[in-house]
Amino acid sequence: MKSNPKYIFFTDFDGTITLQDSNDYMTDNIGFGTALRKQGNKDVLDGIKTFRDSFKEMMDSIDRPYSECIQFLVDNIKLDPYFKSFLKYAESINMPVIILSGGMTPIIKGLLKALAGSDADNIEIVSNHVKLRHGHQNLDEPGGWEIDFHDDSQFGHDKSLAIRPYAQLLPEKRPTLFYAGDGVSDLSAARETDLLFAKKGRDLVTYCVREDVPLTIFEDWRDIEKAVREIV
């Protein structure tokens, strides 16, 4: 808030900034596979399982060394082709971009450095972390790492907690708040901002339609930039 922005853009990372969800990609290809991962997401949407529990099961199914996981993702995950253009636009109007992710900070930083370079230097990241698994000496042993959740919520990272301090500011200081997301990790943020962008065909759209949460559907960051330009 040091620059007194009139707008703040919060965004998910996996499947929103990137074309693929890096955690899903790891689970599908070097974890327990697509079928169990999709069932876990469905269980979260249906209220059978918390996102925290489902995501931990996904990550626990991956036993490759952590640095190998990051390189695997750098080699395979692609950035939305219009995201860097959006970042330049956001900077031009003094609109901070803050990543709120259910993923893990080292992976996000590694992917941003590889995919966006210096264009992403000013993005703040609030996400989960990684810790050494009990009984191991370092993260680069097979099975040596596990997820270290951001908070004690059922989400592991309750994204609403990062948004509400801005939403509760006095009207004369409160910026307009945006959020973009795509999946079950975004459910805690869905009702927290002035405008929600949900990616077409993904679980967040399913949730918002079912729960009557107002949303704007997008296909890529070109759609988001166009919509924001019409508002600001």
Characteristic key phrases:
globular; 7-stranded mixed sheet; 232 residues; single chain; alpha/beta; 9 helices; Rossmann fold; 17% strand
Can you summarize this structure?
The protein has 232 residues and is of the alpha/beta class. Helices cover 39% and strands 17% of the residues.
Please explain how this structure is put together.
By secondary structure, the chain is of the alpha/beta class. The chain has a single domain (7-231), classed as HAD superfamily/HAD-like (Rossmann fold, 3-Layer(aba) Sandwich), CATH 3.40.50. The protein contains nine helices and seven strands, in the order E-H-H-H-H-H-E-H-E-E-H-E-E-H-E-H. A seven-stranded mixed beta sheet has the order 4-3-2-1-5-6-7, sandwiched between helices. Helix 8 (203-211) links the parallel strand 6 (195-199) and strand 7 (216-218).
